[in-house]
Structure to design on (389 residues):
């Protein structure tokens, strides 16, 4: 029994060119000269260039007329030229170490033109451009980027589906591999190897493994704990396929669950189901969080973010970043629209005892929400293997 769908093709240059064209149209409509994209996931989204952040600016100017200009240090020219050979075409502007990349970017803008800046770019990039252009000629490019990236194409959905299926299969294999005395670090190594074996880009960069009362901590404990009989096990992990993320959590017991744990686990599963059912087209993201949180409050948890209860948002957007806007949280009133993708993880924390998080993801369609991965079948049969037998 496996959960793997067919592999998905990578994003094409043609799709990235369409993204650039749509952005350019929005820049013109808003009276903006260009968008400066830093070495963030948005650089890969628009151009296909995947670059590591550093103290030196490497990025791209996307102009309102649709032109793309890459900016990089002169000594990185050959490397950037090689990487952009399979990316969206554009001239490469270079700067020497004693020169200002911000002046270089400014010189490419029309006189008086306003520059939108990638909201995920480092503060020093914003500050450098503001000093050269003046504060009145820079503006937040985040709304432009989020408006595009939050609506996933069919190709993106396929890549996300593949990534999540790989991680669900790794979660299943991990449960069968666990043994008394194994350390959390050893579990992480196993998960990383299995992700790679199935075609993911590894899992060690993001893998939370918690045993017993460490499961109370939403992002896990700091020690290297050994697994003991009847421990609660919480594993939250993911991988990458062509840069697109998975992020799946399973919670179960290595041995015999107590009746108290069974009750709380069932509450968690129902909260996740109610969040999914509330994801209606046009409804605000906040309504999904409310559905889970109100249900839990009615059972005596909380209220709000108080413990015992749900200490964080119900879900987050996901794509080229593992956490993307919009979010399933009280303050986010973004209307749900086809193509949006979210985690669904209304964790329950019982301080000093255990935490339960069941995390799966869904995407919005014209007919409503669709699961990327089926939620946990039951506490005793998390992956539905007994039910399928």
């Amino acid at each position: 029994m496996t959960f793997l769908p067919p592999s998905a093709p990578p994003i094409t240059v043609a799709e990235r060119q369409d993204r650039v064209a749509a952005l350019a149209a929005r820049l013109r409509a808003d009276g903006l000269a260009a968008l400066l994209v830093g070495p963030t996931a948005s650089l890969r989204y628009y151009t296909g260039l995947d670059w590591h952040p550093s103290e030196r600016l490497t990025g791209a100017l996307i102009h309102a007329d649709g032109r793309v200009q890459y900016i990089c240090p002169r000594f990185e020219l050959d490397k950037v030229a090689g990487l952009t050979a399979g990316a969206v075409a554009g001239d490469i502007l270079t700067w020497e170490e004693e020169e200002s990349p911000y002046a270089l970017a400014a010189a490419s803008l029309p006189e008086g033109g306003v520059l939108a800046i990638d909201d995920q770019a480092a503060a020093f990039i914003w500050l450098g451009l503001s000093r050269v252009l003046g504060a009145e000629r820079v503006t937040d490019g985040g709304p432009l980027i989020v408006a595009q990236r939050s609506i996933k194409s069919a190709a993106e959905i396929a890549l996300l589906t593949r990534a999540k299926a790989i991680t669900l299969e790794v979660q299943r294999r991990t449960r069968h591999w666990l043994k008394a005395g194994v350390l959390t670090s050893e579990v992480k190594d196993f998960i990383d190897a299995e992700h790679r074996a199935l075609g993911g880009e590894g899992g060690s960069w993001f893998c939370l493994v918690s045993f017993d009362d460490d499961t109370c901590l939403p992002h896990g404990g700091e020690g290297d704990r050994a697994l003991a009989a009847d421990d609660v096990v919480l594993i939250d992990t993911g991988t990458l396929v062509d840069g697109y993320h998975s992020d799946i959590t399973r919670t179960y017991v290595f041995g015999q669950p107590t009746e108290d744990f069974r009750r709380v686990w069932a509450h968690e599963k129902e909260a996740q189901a109610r969040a999914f059912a509330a994801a209606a087209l046009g409804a605000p993201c906040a309504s999904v969080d409310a559905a889970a949180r109100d249900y839990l409050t009615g059972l005596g948890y909380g209220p709000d973010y108080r413990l015992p209860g749900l200490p964080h948002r119900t879900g987050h957007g996901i794509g080229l970043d593992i956490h993307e806007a919009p979010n399933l949280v009280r303050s986010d009133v973004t209307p749900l629209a086809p193509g949006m993708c979210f985690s669904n993880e209304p964790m329950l924390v019982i301080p000093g005892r255990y935490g339960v998080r069941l995390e799966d993801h869904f995407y919005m369609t014209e007919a409503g929400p669709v699961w990327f991965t089926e939620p946990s079948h039951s506490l005793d049969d998390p992956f539905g293997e007994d039910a399928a037998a």
